[in-house]
Design goal:
two-stranded antiparallel ribbon; Spore Coat Polysaccharide Biosynthesis Protein SpsA, Chain A; globular; four-stranded mixed β-sheet; single chain
């Protein structure tokens, strides 16, 4: 049985080889049971709960949220890289890839785009073309 399970989401094509190597180095350090990738975020998230808007953003009061600059740094999973120790995964309920202690591997914001629609595919192609024109080799920069 392998020591680790690692999922590289195929719908997240903007990961670089260096991102995979760096997150794997963290995983095999032995300090964490799971590693996942995320990007810095400044979203003001809202969720419908029982047909009522509920703010997830830090709040000063009902429906009064603080400015994103006041909220401090936050991250959003970018769905790109997940790694979990096999033993921890099997010992848990096996319905999650997050086993504490966890490590958040931060990736650049441009890596967060996932391809689920034709429009997203066109955006990914644009980002890749632009990066190549700027001299990025798609592997390490």
């Amino acid at each position: 049985m392998p020591d680790w399970l690692m999922v590289l989401q195929p719908t997240s094509p903007l990961k670089l080889a260096s991102h995979i190597r760096e997150s794997w180095a963290v995983a095999k350090s032995g300090a964490f049971e799971s590693v996942f990738s995320a990007v810095a975020s400044a979203h003001c998230s809202w969720r419908l709960k029982d047909k009522t808007l509920s703010a997830e953003w830090p709040q000063h009061g009902p429906l009064r949220r603080m400015l994103r600059q006041q909220a401090g740094k936050q991250w959003t999973e970018n769905g790109t890289i997940y790694a979990v120790k096999t033993e921890a995964f099997l010992a848990g309920s096996a319905d999650t890839r997050f086993c504490p202690p966890m490590y958040l591997y931060e990736m650049p914001g441009w890596t967060s785009l996932q391809v689920d629609t034709e429009e997203e595919l066109a955006l990914v192609e644009f980002i890749m073309r632009t990066r190549l024109q700027l001299g990025a080799n798609g592997v390490t920069t």
